[in-house]
Amino acid sequence: MTPPEGGGGGGRDTPKMAAQHPPPPLPSRPSSREPQRPVPASPRRSDKMAPVPVPLKDMKLLDVKLGQLPTWLAMRDFTPGGIGGALRRGYERYYNKYINVKKGGLGGISMVLAGYIVISYMWSYSHLKHDRRRKYH
Amino acid sequence: MNLSFFDQFSSPSLLGIPLILLSLLFPALLFPSPGNRWVNSRLSTIQLWLLHLITKQLMIPLNKNGHKWALMLTSLMVMLLTINLLGLLPYTFTPTTQLSMNMALAFPLWLATLLTGLRNKPSASLAHLLPEGTPTPLIPALILIETTSLLIRPLALGVRLTANLTAGHLLIQLISTASVALAPILPAVSILTMAILLLLTILEVAVAMIQAYVFVLLLSLYLQENI
Question: Where is the composition biased (Gly residues) (chain A) (predicted)?
């Protein structure tokens, strides 16, 4: 964070706010904003608030232990509405992190374009694999 | 081997889903609708500036009645522009290289301009079939020619876009194949072809933008005659 300068940012906001707008509250997963790891190792955090155990249903994939994975997967919402909601949540997370920020750059868009290239490559792999420059295949 | 140069123009499908669906939906993802703030972010400012520029360019020659078409023409321009430019990324599929898709864009829009003219001011739009001051013996022939040129317009619109995009993609693939094939045997010539490839890529970026503009500009000219 840069220290606040006089009249920085065209007088719109303090540069402290320039990082990003806060994402809108997500109704289904209220605890997904911060990584809530179940390790109460840091004393700085633990004196503020006790680590609330997150129910397995609301845990992020990165926090799920390997043994809990089948249970976690079974608890996911695989109805069309649930899948749509997951897609929308993912889009909003991306949008509020990279696009809907004051000083957005090329990073977010380049990421999407790179992903598009990779997906297109996967999609047309069955065609492309015949174009290798080898003699015998 | 010869067929594989045209392989890039057939939409590959994975699990029965053709890639053209993804390439057609992708532009919608890249242009988010602006929020309720006046000044959102750099990206939305650039987007708004671009949309404003395009709308202004297209709407200046049209009269008040034609301004109803602003949404249609601007979104068509943005869609074509995005699809053409995204198609230049490697391995991606370009829907605008398909004649069927371009005709599906060109024909209804052209017909809409024609029907608008015939309904709102029939005599003026029929008068376009004969230029003023034509010598009397030439009138039948000229009417035939003008009618043909009127009816051929959607075909020309669609084919123009398809041919430009297809030719560009083919040229890029031919030259890049040549430079890869020449690299082990004639490195100097390969460097030359790579330089040509670089210049051609710049040209293709320009062509992608210009052809999107030309498509919409011609439509707006047809509209201008009829409104």
Answer: 1-12
Evaluate whether B74 touches B55 at the Cβ level (below 8 Å): yes
Which DSSP symbol is given to B13? E
For B96-130, write each residue's pLDDT tens digit.
Answer: 998 999 999 999 999 999 999 999 888 888 888 88
Q: What is the DSSP letter of B88?
A: T
Q: Model ipTM? A: 0.80
CA distance B119 to chain A (A): 44
The model's pTM is: 0.74
Cβ separation B13–A131 shorter than 8 A: no
Interchain contact A129–B (C-beta under 8 A): no
Distances in Å between the Cα of B55 and the Cα atoms of A98, B48, B70 are 27, 10, 7
Query: Percentages helix, strand, coil for chain A, rounded to the nearest 5?
Result: 55, 0, 45
The Cα B64–Cα A108 span in angstroms is 39
DSSP state of A68: G
Neighbours of B142 (CB within 10 A): 15
Q: Beta-strand (E) ranges in B20-96?
A: none
What does the pLDDT look like over B130-154, one tens digit per residue? 888 888 888 889 999 999 999 999 9
> CB burial class (10 A; 0-12, 13-18, 19+) of residue B87?
buried
- Closest partner residue to A124 (CB to CB) among B30, B42, B91 is B91
Cα separation, B155 vs B107, whole angstroms = 8
Q: Do B92 and A12 touch (CB under 8 A)?
A: no
Phi/psi at B14 (5° precision)? -120, 125
- B147's tokens: 């009618």
Angle subtended by helix axes B42-59 and B187-226, to nearest 10: 60
Closest CA to B163 of B102, B75, B81, B73: B102
* Helix then strand then coil, % of chain B, to nearest 5: 80, 0, 20
> DSSP class of residue B1?
-
CA angle B1, B12, B167 (to 5 degrees): 60
Whether the CB-CB separation of B170 and B5 falls below 8 Å is answered with yes
Quote the Cα angle for A101-A106-A108, to 5°: 60
